[in-house]
């Protein structure tokens, strides 16, 4: 993928894809709030879709991940509005068994709502069941954390393109950072987030948890390997399994990965 000086690529006569920047952060978070927090299976299962405060805590998670400088957005050319986003996260292998993963720490220390804590703990638990660092013998990955498209822009393959270009971006990180986002860029609402220390390594795999039929189809199209399948009925919020609220008892998620080299 050639980003060029502008770090963006025209992908059709309607859209371009580009690295998340200070100018697009607000729009990217709006897509998560209006799309992921309302329509994603795990958001419905954990009732984040009914809890505005919990949704705000997921936006804080996205703002924190943005500091890694590896997230991507799709911008509509005619309006300059962000219409789809992949919030990506650099994951580094823990240096000790006692060191807690990022999602687990976030759920414990920064979630005040049980619904947002349930969703992020789901991510931590599923990630923890499949040690991709050990499977691939690597120390660092790029995780496609939250993928979302506004309802009126769906069925344009924007999610597939975001994932494809996320893999391409992950490969380029071997040569150094592509873009930089600082805490100041996030705005005063997120000034409590800790600045990011520079990574001393780079991703060797791209990973994700596919929680819907749509994302699972994307993974198949892009040749991700499925390493683990987990029924969503195993996860319970407020006395009900996720699947009861989703309305599909057979719903499941996949832990997937793709080697970059």
TrEMBL record:
SUPFAM superfamilies associated with the record: Acyl-CoA N-acyltransferases (Nat) (SSF55729)
A molecular function (GO) term: N-acetyltransferase activity
InterPro entries: Acyl_CoA_acyltransferase (IPR016181)
Protein origin, superkingdom: Eukaryota
Protein name: N-acetyltransferase domain-containing protein
Source lineage: Eukaryota, Metazoa, Ecdysozoa, Arthropoda, Hexapoda
């Amino acid at each position: 993928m050639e980003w060029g000086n502008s770090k963006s690529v025209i992908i059709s006569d309607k859209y371009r894809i580009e690295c998340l920047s200070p100018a697009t952060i607000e729009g990217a978070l709006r897509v998560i709030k209006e799309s992921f927090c309302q329509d994603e299976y795990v958001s419905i299962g954990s009732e984040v879709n009914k809890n505005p405060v919990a949704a705000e805590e997921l936006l804080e998670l996205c703002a924190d991940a943005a500091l890694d400088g590896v997230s991507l957005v799709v911008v509509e050319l005619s309006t300059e509005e962000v219409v789809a986003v992949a919030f990506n996260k650099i994951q580094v292998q823990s240096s000790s068994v006692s060191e807690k993963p990022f999602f687990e720490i976030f759920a414990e220390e920064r979630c005040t709502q049980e619904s947002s804590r349930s969703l992020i703990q789901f991510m931590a638990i599923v990630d923890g069941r499949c040690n991709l660092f050990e499977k691939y013998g690597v120390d660092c990955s790029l995780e496609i954390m939250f993928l979302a498209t506004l309802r009126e822009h769906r069925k344009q393959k924007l999610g597939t393109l975001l994932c494809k270009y996320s893999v391409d971006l992950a490969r380029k990180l071997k040569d150094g950072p592509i873009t930089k986002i600082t805490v100041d860029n996030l705005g005063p609402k997120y000034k409590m987030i800790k600045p990011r220390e520079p990574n001393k390594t780079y991703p060797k795999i791209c990973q994700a948890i596919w929680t819907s039929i749509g994302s699972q189809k994307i993974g198949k199209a892009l040749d991700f390997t499925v390493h683990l399948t987990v029924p969503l009925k195993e996860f319970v919020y407020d006395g009900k399994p996720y699947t009861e609220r989703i309305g599909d008892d057979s719903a499941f998620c996949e832990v997937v990965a793709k080697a970059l080299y």
